[in-house]
Amino acid sequence: MVYVRKDVSTLTAGERRRFVNALLELKRRGEYDEFVRLHIDVYTADGENGLRSAHMAPSFLPWHRRFVLELERALRRVDSSVTVPYWDWTRNRKATSVPWTKDLLGGNGRRSDRQVTTGPFAYAAGHWTIKEGVTDGRFLTRDLGRAAAPIQLPTKSELQWALADPVYDVRPWNSTVRKGFRNKLEGWGSGSGSASWLNHNRVHRWVGGAMLGGASVNDPVFWMHHAFLDLQWTRWQRAHRSHRYLPAEPPGAGDAQHGRVVARHEKLPPWDETPDQLEDLSRIYRYG
Amino acid sequence: MAVGVGGVAVGAEQQATAEPVRRSRREVARGLLGSAAVLAMAPVVAASRPLPTAGPADAGAFDETYRGRRIQGVQVSDTGRTLVDGVWQITVDGRPLHLMRRADGTWLSIIDHYTSYRTPLEATRAAVDELGPHRKLRDLAPGRFGGEHSGVHTGEGGQHGVRA
């Protein structure tokens, strides 16, 4: 049965409660922290040797599609009514908007130490101690909007700029490419400073705190953010039906990217599927 | 209900076996063990070298107090891990800070994975900015990243959580 992922702003009070409770149960069982750990472990940058499966690479989108699906499967083992909602940051743009409410993810971190003190993921609530973090902080942190040097969430037109590119990705398939849907969405820009953070990257920066580091999965907004990005991939596919995941074939032995990116029909570690097999999951879920 | 994706059981929760995951996780862990081992080995490598001489390997080394934190960085060796040049050993108050290199030559830290900086020093200062006055880096010792020694990768891996 195909299930529906909804806009988080449309969830009923009961749906919000069940989503939150399923997350807390995964955390209690220790399963959630395995997701955090995996995301830390797969981060290989493109200035280093080794296969880049999850970031700075064409497989950024299928990797995270598979990752969100895995979390969703775990949530649904706890409560079969739950699906991962998406956060449309082009519409819900304020630090007080959904999902930053007490019945969902709680609000911003406090000024002194960025600790989230409201909602179900507040440290004092006792259910969300950070175990797989990059610092010794035991509490979830956020810095919504980046208080020290404020930035805005990406706009609808910035997202559209990515969606309008008909080519999925281009050589050399990394963070330096300026064309192609994948990096326009992933958001590695040129230069430094605020103009260099686009779409996906800019949202991580806007949320700040845990979401900025290697252990970004510690903030449950990670899943809502990536569900929304996953929806963009689906939209892009609909808009450009003759275009597909690239590269179709692995870069050859003489190519600097040889062995460092996942081609369409290669397995995408640590999953058993290929990007080809992950391009269409409409038999499993759809977006409402 | 098992829902296949192109013949592969993406939705088949009960069909998932532990073995492929263990293998792939070890592969992931091995890569990280490599980088963590580089950091851990760095002082040994430095100590066993001839006396350091001024040269490219020392370019950009720093040792300063920034916002009350002692930050130190030195380029220790080129193990082939990075494509551009050597590996940096960075510490904040003596605790290792993991830096990554982007293809454009800029640097990312594990504290700030979505912004890159022109030099290791800038990336380290930015990490201190993010840490704030109270939090410390977690010590990413080899045992922590080495999957063979970590319950995260082995003890529980086949039982639940992230599996293919």
TrEMBL record, chain A:
InterPro entries reported for this sequence: Di-copper_centre_dom_sf, Tyrosinase/Hemocyanin, Tyrosinase_Cu-bd
Oxidoreductase listed as a keyword: yes
Reported cofactor(s): Cu(2+)
GO molecular function: metal ion binding; tyrosinase activity
Protein origin, superkingdom: Bacteria
Tyrosinase copper-binding domain boundaries: 55-72, 219-230
Enzyme Commission identifier(s): 1.14.18.1
Record key words, sorted: Copper, Metal-binding, Oxidoreductase
Family per similarity comment: Belongs to the tyrosinase family.
PANTHER family: TYROSINASE FAMILY MEMBER, TYROSINASE-LIKE PROTEIN TYR-1-RELATED
Name the UniProt record assigns to this protein: Tyrosinase
Originating species: Streptomyces echinatus
Source organism phylogeny: Bacteria, Bacillati, Actinomycetota, Actinomycetes, Kitasatosporales
From TrEMBL, chain B:
Biased composition regions of type Gly residues, renumbered to the chain: 152-164
GO MF, one annotated term: copper ion binding
Region annotation (Disordered) ranges: 140-164
InterPro entries noted in UniProt: GriE/MELC1_sf, MelC1
UniProt keyword terms in alphabetical order: Copper, Signal
Compositionally biased region (Basic and acidic residues): 140-151
Top-rank taxon, per record: Bacteria
GO biological process: melanin biosynthetic process
Protein known as: Tyrosinase co-factor
Species name: Streptomyces echinatus
